[in-house]
Write a structure and sequence with these properties.
By secondary structure, the protein is mainly α. The protein has 8 helices and no strands. Helix 3 crosses helix 8 and helix 7 crosses helix 8. The longest helix is centred in the N-terminal third of the chain and has 15 residues. The termini are far apart. The relative contact order is 0.16.
């Protein structure tokens, strides 16, 4: 009887597990929900650490970027980030990419980086004022 209950429990637990495909889809999702306060913080973080190269409006057309020979994507164009997952953006921000330095965890906590991604994606939204344009 104990073996039957153990087997039944194992089968039930197995059936309740998410599929690998479902886990992969959730792995790249942004885990935070934006609030007015979190987006104000994201705007501050962007202004301090990102806008010097990416521009205040996210178009990537700054003197510093041009002087460094960087060709940055125009985030005001919805196509620019359409095929880039939030997880890919998180990894690029947290770890750096090419000449872009990493955003150290001591400078921005994970939730702040996730909120920064929401803020960046708003540059291409129809209501661009939401991202501080």
């Amino acid at each position: 009887m104990l073996k039957s209950m153990t087997l039944l429990t194992a089968v039930v637990l197995f059936l309740m597990m998410p599929t690998p495909r479902a886990m992969a889809q959730d792995a790249g999702k942004n885990p935070v929900k934006a609030t007015a306060a979190s987006q104000a913080d994201a705007k501050r973080l962007f202004s301090q650490d990102c806008s010097m190269c990416h521009g205040d409006n996210g178009n990537g057309q700054t003197d510093l970027a041009k002087g460094m020979g960087l060709k940055l994507g125009d985030w005001t164009d919805p196509k620019t980030l359409a095929s880039v997952s939030d997880q890919e953006l998180f990894n690029a921000i947290r770890n750096g990419k090419d000449k872009m330095p990493p955003e150290a965890e001591g400078r921005a906590k994970n939730d702040q980086v996730w909120n920064l991604i929401i803020y960046i994606r708003k540059f291409s939204s129809p209501d661009q004022s939401a991202a501080g344009k």
